[in-house]
Design a protein that fits this description.
alpha/beta, five-stranded mixed sheet, 16 helices, 38% helix, globular
Length: 398
């Protein structure tokens, strides 16, 4: 009799398990899970905030919400390998523009990062902060994460500590190498950020003041990240005519710092370079074969996006925002900028010319209400509206 009751009890448990209650049950979808298999037909059961089943749910399984995904693909949330939402998540934690693309995790920190930060850098960003009524009440990465966790966010966030960020905190915006003591302070800031959860150290070498950093400085910071298991990620120094040299710099940093390298948004910029991606890929493969752990990512569209001010060569940005704006108001400096943007150069990546000049530069977003009329127009169209030379119109808009 005891054995009979044991059998009845066992069958009861089995039946209960086969008819499990889920919070969400997605049936009949083609599951793509990143394991290497193109896809499989499977059901996905969710309990609370956990996936409890990937396979075939029992016929009697029930759920608070049942989704028939026949003819659809079911996938884990996508990881955006390089986003810019560190501040925007504090302004609008819903992150709808990410979630509606299936993105549930974003990696950020392209050269500049949300921390470390000091009073001078906060003040330089005052116009943006005031516009969105955002208070910077953190100074370290740990304090930022504490703020984000307390507020909540629609996506997960991971970040690098920016080589540009620590340079700006310690050196400022000057075009000079750090002293030995300054470099030690920069390394210490990288190590602190690594202990607080940074993925590694990053650079964005096309932009000022990042472009002022020499390779040796970047190797030292990459070594600091490597001591804590981090990697080196980079928007390389040139993605146009000097791209091969920029790639070699990234490989050298990985080799000498003994750190994995990630090349962000790999591309060949400028119409004059179309067709050379085979050479870029071959260089990466050669570096990998030599022992450098280097990988790359791409974005899935054919235009690049950055600030309009970034089209002005880096040397005019030295000293920070106010000196930069003063140069844009100086007639001799404006004439020099026009000359610089009229031809390709080995000294900087001419993204104005690489985009096709004023016809290829599209203005997508402006803060000032009186300038909103220019959104969605090219610089050629804006220049025609204002009756100006296109570079003058761009400098005035900046």
């Amino acid at each position: 009799m005891l054995r009979l009751w044991s059998l009845v009890l066992f069958l009861g448990i089995a039946l209960a398990a086969s008819a499990q209650q889920y919070d969400v049950l997605i049936r009949n979808g083609r599951v793509v899970d990143g394991s290497g298999n193109p896809w499989i037909y499977a059901d996905v059961g969710i309990v609370g905030d956990r996936i409890a089943l990937v396979g075939r749910a029992a016929e009697g399984a029930t759920a608070k919400r049942m989704i028939d995904a026949a003819g659809l693909v079911v996938a884990p949330g996508f990881i955006d390998m390089l986003g810019q939402s560190e501040y925007h998540l504090l302004i609008d934690k819903q992150a709808v523009s990410k979630l509606t693309q299936g993105i549930t995790t974003e990696v950020t920190g392209e050269g500049e990062s949300v921390a470390p930060i000091n009073e001078r850098l906060i003040e330089e960003n005052r116009e943006f902060l005031n516009h969105y009524k955002l208070k910077v009440d953190w100074r370290t990465l740990a304090e930022y994460f504490e703020r984000l966790e307390k507020q909540g966010a629609g996506v997960n966030l991971a970040t690098f500590v920016g080589a540009t960020q620590v340079r700006r905190v310690v050196v400022g915006d000057a075009d000079r190498p750090p002293s030995a003591e300054e470099l030690r302070r920069m390394e210490a800031l990288v190590e602190e950020a690594m202990r607080e959860g940074a993925l590694g150290v990053s650079s964005s070498l096309i932009y000022a003041p990042a472009s002022y950093a020499k390779t040796e400085e970047l190797i030292a910071l990459a070594k600091a990240a490597a001591r804590h298991g981090g990697i080196y990620a980079s928007h390389i120094r040139n993605e146009s005519d000097q791209e091969m040299a920029a790639l070699e710099e990234a490989f050298r940093i990985g080799r000498e710092a003994k750190v994995p390298v990630e090349i962000w948004h790999l591309k060949v910029a400028g119409k004059q370079n179309w067709g050379t991606m085979r050479d870029v890929v071959a260089a990466i493969q050669k570096a990998r074969a030599s022992g450098v752990d280097v990988t790359a990512d791409q974005y899935p569209y054919v235009a690049a996006a950055t600030s309009l001010g970034a089209s002005i060569p880096p040397k005019y940005h030295e000293g920070g925002l106010e000196p930069f704006l003063a140069r844009l108001k100086d007639h001799a400096q404006r004439a020099a900028i026009k000359r610089d943007l009229a031809a390709l150069s080995e000294k900087f990546e001419n993204i104005w010319l690489g985009a096709g000049g004023p016809d290829g530069v599209l203005v997508t977003s402006l803060l000032q209400p009186e300038l909103k009329k220019y959104e969605g127009k090219t610089m050629a169209q804006i220049a025609a509206m204002e009756g100006k030379h296109p570079v003058d119109a761009a400098m005035d808009l900046v």
